[in-house]
Amino acid sequence: MDHSRRLRLTTLSRVLRTRVTRTAYYGLAIAIIAIAVATLANAYLQAGAASLGAIWRAQLENPTLWLLDSMPFVFLLWGQYVGLVVSTEASAMVLDETEDLRGDNAVLAAEARRSQRIDPLTGLVNRSHFVDSLEADIEAAQLSRTTVGVIVVDLDGFSEINQHYGQANGDRVLVAMARRLSHAVPAAATLARLDADRFGVTVTEPASADELERIAERIRDAIAPPCPLDGLSLQLVASAGGACYPDNAIDAYGLLDAATQAMQDVKSRGGDFSMVCSKREVRGVVMHSLSAELRRAIDEDELVLYLQPLVDVSAAKTYGAEVLVRWQHPRRGLIMPGDFIPRAERSGLMDDLTFWVLRRGIGYAARLRQGGRDLRISINVSARSLLRRDFPDNLQKLMDERGLPGTALTLELTEDTLMADQSRTLEIVERLAATGVQISIDDFGTGYSQLAYLKRLPVSEIKIDRSFVQDMLESDTDLSIVSATISLAHALKLRAVGEGVESSAQLERLRALGCDLIQGFYVGHPMPVGQFERWLRDRDTHTPVS
Questions:
Q1: Cβ(501)–Cβ(517) under 8 Å?
Q2: Strand spans (E) along 156-264
Q3: Residue 276: its pLDDT value, please?
Q4: Are 82 and 24 in contact (CB under 8 A)?
Q5: Of 181, 139, 165, 186, nearest to 228 (Cα)?
Q6: What is the residue extent of each domain of the chain?
Q7: What is the Cα–Cα distance from 429 to 438, expressed in whole angstroms?
Q8: pLDDT mean across residues, the chain
Q9: Rounded to an integer, what distance in angstroms lies between the CA atom of residue 493 and that of residue 488?
Q10: For 1-10, 41-50, 509-518, which range has the lowest pLDDT when averaged over its residues?
C-alpha cells in the first residue's frame, strides 16, 4: 500500500476513534451529573440539608453510592475501548474495499487494453496492434540485419455472402476463416484481422519470398475446403499479396501497403489465390515511408524552388514564372512533386507544404522586384489549403511581410478545386481578388466546369492543359478544343495560357489562334532559382520568341 493511501486510512481511523471518544465523554458527563444529583438527594433525605458534611456522611454510610461513583470511570474506559475497536474494524473494512476496487480496476484496465488490440469477432489482433507489432519486428530486423515478411489475404466476393445470407452468417464465415488461418500460419507468426474480410500475417526471420510462398500455399489449402453454413457448402477463394523488408519497404505502413498492392494486382487479374512478392521496389510504397521524413524536410528546408518561365507571345517578353517545388532528399536525391505531394495530402502536411512554397515564392518575387524585374509569380494551391477560412488573411500577412503587392502574385487552382465547394470557394476567391491577387484555372479542359459558375468567379486566366496543346497539330479534335478554349477565355476577358509547348510549330499555331502566354520546354524547363536568374540575364526580354 502506498504512503498516501496509508495516511488516508490512518486519518480515517483517528476520526472514527475521536467521534466514539467524544460520545464516551458525553456519557461520562451525564454519569457525573447523575451521581451528583443522587448524592445531594441522599444527603438531603438523611440530614435534612445538602451541606458538605451531610454529603460526606451520605457517602460513608451508603455503599451504593460508592458503586455509582465508579460508573463514570467504567463508562470512560468502555468508551475508549469501543472507539478503538470501531475505528480498527472500520479501517479494515475500508482497506478490504479498497483492495477489491483495486482488483476490479486492474481487471477492467486489462480488459480495456485487450479490447484495444483484439478484434472482438475473430479474437485475432486488430490492425492497430498488427502495425505496432510489425514496426517492432522491423526495428529488430534493422539491428540484426534480417528480414520481415508480410502477407495480406483478402476473401474474394465476401460481400455477396453478406448480401445473400445476411451479416450474421457472414460473421460466422469470418470466424471460421480466422480459425483456419490460425492453423495455417506458423506459430511464431502474427495473424490479424485488418479489415472486414482482409487478414494480415507477419513473418519474421527467415522471411524470404520463398518462405512467404510456402505460407501462402498453406493458407490456400486451409481456405479451399467448403465452408458449411446452415446445410450449404460455400466454396471460398481468396487473393493474397506479399512483401519483404527491406526489399519492398522500410517501415510498417510501407510494407503493409506493398503487400496490399500486390494482393490487388492479383485480384485485378482474376488470379484466384496467388502469391506475389516482387523483388523490385513497389512504386508508392517507399514514398509512404517518406511521409514521416517530409515533416523534417519542410522544417529543415530540404525542399527547393524551381521556376518555369511564362512568356508573353504578342510582346515577345518574359511575363513571369510558375513556382514549382522539388524535394532534395539527402539519400534519395531529387524527388519530384508527383511522388511526395500525394503523401503530404494523406499525412495532413499539405497546409504546411503549401505555405512553405507560398512563403519562399513570395520572398523570391519580392527579391526580383527589388532587383528591377517586375515579373508575376504563379503558385499552385491545393483545395485543402484554399478552403481554409484563414487562408486569405495568412496569405496577405505573408505578402505584407515582404512588401509584395497582390498584383504580383497569381494563384493557380484546378477545375476540381473550384468546383468542390462552390459557395465557399467563391467567397474565398473574391476575398483574394479584392487584395489584387489574380486567379488562374490550371489544366483547363480536364475537369468539369459550369460556365454559369465560371463567369461569376473573379478569374484572370485559363491555362489550357498540355495534353491538348501537345496533340493539337495531329488531332483536329484537340486543335478545336484549344481554339475554343482561347475564344472562351477572350469572351470572358481572360488571358489564355498554352502549357506544354515543345516546338516552334506549336508556338506558331498558338500565336495564330491568339493565345496570350505560353509555357513549356521550348521556352524553358523548370530550373532552380540560380539557373533561372542566369536564364533571365542571358535572355533579352524584348527578343521575339522564335
A1: no
A2: 190-193, 198-203, 227-229, 232-234, 238-245
A3: 45
A4: yes
A5: 165
A6: 3-117, 127-287, 297-538
A7: 9
A8: 79
A9: 9
A10: 1-10
Helix (H, G, I), strand (E, B) or coil at 372: coil
**Could you tell me the CATH superfamily of domain 297-538?**
EAL domain (3.20.20.450)
Report which of 320, 311, 200 is spatially closest to residue 253, judged by C-alpha positions: 200
Determine how many CB atoms are found less than 10 A away from the CB of residue 192.
Answer: 26
| pLDDT tens-digit readout, 69-116 | 666 566 656 656 665 666 666 666 656 655 655 655 555 444 544 556
Strands 376-380 and 317-329: parallel
**Distances from the Cα of 61 to the Cαs of 31, 41, 53, 55, 70, in angstroms?**
21, 14, 12, 10, 16
What percent of the chain has pLDDT above 90? 26
pLDDT at 34 over 80: no
pTM of structure: 0.51
CA dist., res. 453 & res. 470, Å (int): 28
281 pLDDT tier (thresholds 50, 70, 90):
very low
Looking only at the bridges linking them, the beta strands covering 317-329 and 238-245 are unpaired
Residues 334-364 pLDDT 10s:
888 887 887 777 667 888 899 999 999 999 9
Q: How many CB atoms lie within 10 A of CB 343?
A: 20
The fourth-level CATH superfamily of domain 127-287 is Reverse transcriptase/Diguanylate cyclase domain (3.30.70.270)
The three grid cell numbers given for residue 187, joined into one nine-digit string: 506459430
The three cell numbers locating residue 105: 480496476
CB 471 within 8 A of CB 441: no
Phi-psi label, residue 316: left if phi above 0, alpha if psi -120 to 50, beta otherwise: left
How sure is the predictor about 257, in pLDDT bands with cuts at 50, 70 and 90?
confident
476: left (phi over 0), alpha (psi -120 to 50) or beta: alpha
pLDDT over 60 (residue 246): yes
> Which residues is 228 bridged to in the sheet?
233
Tell me the HSE value of 110 on the side-chain side, using a 13 A CA sphere.
Answer: 6
In 2-62, where does DSSP find H-type helix?
A: 3-47, 52-61
The C-alpha cell that represents 334 in the structure block: 531529387
Is residue 462 within 8 A of residue 440, CB to CB? The reply is yes
CA atoms within 13 A on the CB side of 298: 20
Angle 64-69-71 from CA coordinates, rounded to 5°: 100
- Domain 127-287 shares a fold with domain 297-538: no
Find cell 490456400 and name the residue.
220
Q: Which residue has the cell 486510512?
A: 9
Q: Return the closest-CA partner of residue 438 out of 456, 467, 415, 412.
A: 412
Residue 121 phi, psi dihedral angles, 5° rounding: -80, -55
Output the pLDDT for position 260.
Answer: 85
